[in-house]
Amino acid sequence: MEPRSAIMISSISVTLGIAVSIVGITVYLASKSSKNPAPNLPGITKAQPLWRLLLFGSTKDPTDSTHNLINGHIWKFRKHLVEQCGRLALFDFGGQTTVNVADPELVRMILNDYRGFVKPYLSTSRMKMIAVGLFALEGDEWKLHRGYLSKAFDRAHLKRTADIAVSLTNDLISLWGSEIVFDVPTMFDSITVDILGKVMYSYDFEARKNFRQVDDPIAAMLEYAHKSIGWPLALWHWTPQGRTFAKYKTRARETVYKALRKKNSTPAKEGGDRDLIDILTHGGELSEVEIIEEIMGVFAAGYHTTSAMLALVLFHLIRNPESMSQARSEIDHMMNTSTIDYNSLSSLTYMDKVIKETARITPVADFLSRRSVKAFDYHGIHFPKDTQLQLDIWNLHMNPEHFKDPERFWPERWESGQKIIEGSYIPFSDGPRRCIGEKLAVLDGKAILAVFIHHYDFEILPDQDLGLYHFVTACFKDGLKVRAKARLREE
After folding, report:
1. Mean pLDDT throughout 253-257?
2. In terms of Cα–Cα distance, which of 70, 32, 68 is closest to 50?
3. Quick check: 136 and 263 in contact, CB under 8 A?
């Protein structure tokens, strides 16, 4: 046989093998969904299987603005669930039955009971793949680590964070000149990774100087970790991407370990000058291994989420000139009358509303997962032990019973006196496990955006697909290109 013919036959065999495997997996998922019906939960409607909706779902185009913007399959699926099944819905995927929860009362009950409702096995296994820290722990161990880490988010350390964010952002815009075109998510990735490096272990990656072309093993590890979505972890670890992830994870641990060793050999810092390693190292409560895991876990939790949130805030401000004008007026007043720091940033109350409204209409995470540790009853419905629950953030936020005119970007809805139904707004989760880094993320966001908006005007370049899709966090499908022009202001 000719060598070329052998290669062609081999290629055809591999292609057929892959095709047969895909068909086999699809048939398996379909059979699992049909042979494993949902638990008997009277009063809850069961939706069609997720795989069937994604492959053969409705092709009817949505008509409202937000649904035109948010046009990924997952968003469509969540909208479908509530429209067809109501606030509680059952759906199957891969043989696992899940209850979709868009009922604020039940959401509140679940989030307030951190011992009775824990993160599912699949979620914790993926988090532990990155780091066995706070975000993968439960019960008393979680409570203990939460107490240790909370010291890094007190007022003194938030002041230090504000100073770092302002300094690095001013350094960034000094490179822009009078006009620059850039990709918004990439720009915010670069400044976020630099701020986190300084806050956590006093290291400057200088990603802002070359738009994230930085040899940061933790950020690289996270990029590859996201590629495991959809794979069984036992198989993914053997793929080229899985092996690359393992390489970066080893380097990330070595990076944190070196910083930890350096801290141990120097006198302890006092007060707000300490970074996260200082706080955890000289507290004496955690081992070196635990400190490394927590550093990597905090970085993993705060990196893409903060960056994505900031990209969405700027996007909404550019698209809503009246909101941009009001935010800019407040920022200019602050800049012209005081030094930009923790205290003056706290005065930006309209920016607080802008960030809240952004997190409502385009949440960075569209759901939270929980598993019931024991059986429970809710309004006459009996939920068995180990019920899988998805708290549907997006539908909670877009329900007109919770928020008037939910499709509209309207920061003024957050004026004091406006009543918000508890459990209807959970972009940072809620209850005892509410995001520990929420204040830090919002403070960083206000600092970065204040510097940007004070010095530059922004416009979105034409001919871009502005649709969002959800892959770990909310993302623009093809990035978001904007032009920044230095403002002409009377001094």
Report:
1. 86
2. 32
3. no
Q: State residue 202's pLDDT score.
A: 85
Which pLDDT score, from 0 to 100, does residue 59 have? Answer: 38
Average pLDDT over residues 255-263: 82
Please count the CA atoms within 13 angstroms of the CA of 366 that sit on its side-chain side. 22
Q: What's the residue count for the chain?
A: 491
8 A C-beta contact, residue 391 and residue 368: yes
Mean pLDDT of 442-450: 97
- In angstroms, the CA 244 to CA 236 distance is 11
- How far apart CA 93 and CA 110 sit, in angstroms, is 22
Strand 388-392 to 96-101 pairing: parallel
Q: pTM to 2 decimals? A: 0.85
Between CA 164 and CA 447 the distance in angstroms is 9
Beta-carbon contacts of residue 146 (< 8 Å; ≥ 6 apart): 134, 436
Amino acid 132: pLDDT? 78
Strands 117-118 and 96-101: unpaired
The candidate with the shortest Cα–Cα distance to 41, out of 397, 423, 372, is 372
pLDDT over 80 at 253, yes or no: yes
For the segment 40-66, the average pLDDT, to the nearest whole number, is 55
- 280-312 tens-digit pLDDT: 887 667 888 888 888 888 888 888 899 999 999
Cα atoms in the Cβ-side hemisphere of radius 13 Å centred on 226:
16
In contact, 332 and 487? CB cutoff 8 Å: no
Higher pLDDT, 100 or 255: 100
Give residue-wise pLDDT tens across range 314-332. 999 999 999 999 999 999 9
- For β-strands 88-93 and 45-46, DSSP reports them as parallel
pLDDT band of residue 38 (cuts 50, 70, 90) is very low
Q: How far out from the chain centre does Cα 58 lie?
A: 28
Q: What is the mean pLDDT of residues 361-376?
A: 93
